[in-house]
Fold this sequence. Notes:
Blueprint: H1 2-17, E1 23-32, E2 35-41, E3 73-77, H2 79-90, E4 99-103, H3 113-119, E5 125-131, E6 134-139, E7 142-147, H4 154-157, E8 169-170, H5 175-178, H6 189-195, H7 199-210, H8 218-222, H9 247-261, H10 270-274, H11 282-296
Parallel strand pairs: 1-3, 3-4, 4-8
Antiparallel strand pairs: 1-2, 5-6, 6-7
Amino acid sequence: xxxxxxxxxxxxxxxxxxxxxxxxxxxxxxxxxxxxxxxxxxxxxxxxxxxxxxxxxxxxxxxxxxxxxxxxxxxxxxxxxxxxxxxxxxxxxxxxxxxxxxxxxxxxxxxxxxxxxxxxxxxxxxxxxxxxxxxxxxxxxxxxxxxxxxxxxxxxxxxxxxxxxxxxxxxxxxxxxxxxxxxxxxxxxxxxxxxxxxxxxxxxxxxxxxxxxxxxxxxxxxxxxxxxxxxxxxxxxxxxxxxxxxxxxxxxxxxxxxxxxxxxxxxxxxxxxxxxxxxxxxxxxxxxxxxxxxxxxxxxxxxxxxxxxxxxxxxxxxxxxxxxx
Length: 325
């Protein structure tokens, strides 16, 4: 990771010193372990604060939505985040010419802090140390070693889309990062396994997960593709939502948000990692991505192409509308 950081420093220094951008958006260490925070680099002296590692788990694209058009901004992104940016460009929310993309090839993925908390039984850790694929967590009265694969975000575990598809600058990475091979498994393996459950079992699973929801809206607020100025959940003319603690209201929110993301979600999983209750909602969105792939043969969102549900082709399958012989 240190080699990546050095490569980033060179690129960022060039952009700032040559005034090619107004600032570069990246990460710096936060006050809590495993929780870095966004860093706006405007001056060369700020570059040394820049970090890049497997716990930089926010989707920084979200922060671009508040910037006015015409403001030149650099941003450091992994591929799933770049695809989020592509969706916003396609939907005319961001101008491509305003953004300088610094693409970083992804290695194994991002750590899910909720998985860490679960494996530590909710105990707070004050320090951690990495040794290969082992992470040692220490807190008051405890020390625990956890394997990387046990705390890796689910979306990262099955992701084969590791290399940036759109960028202005590509970070040079160590050889082990470049030799990313497609493993012999289906990218939607977790969804396929879940589909083997009975409808009753699937309902029981989501019911148990969503009962934990407090409707804090962290998932919505972390998602760069939730950019409506007035969300349906906050509308009172008409009022669609009561904001009660009833399970049906929680279901309504999550199902409506999922439908809004159908054909748009890029699987960055920022929503799941943002959830303070550790609710596993990634399967819901990934199922929609699989349906998009199976039905319309569209797997990835490309620059300049309309979203699947925002376009129409004469040969689109429509057996749900007409009975075919």
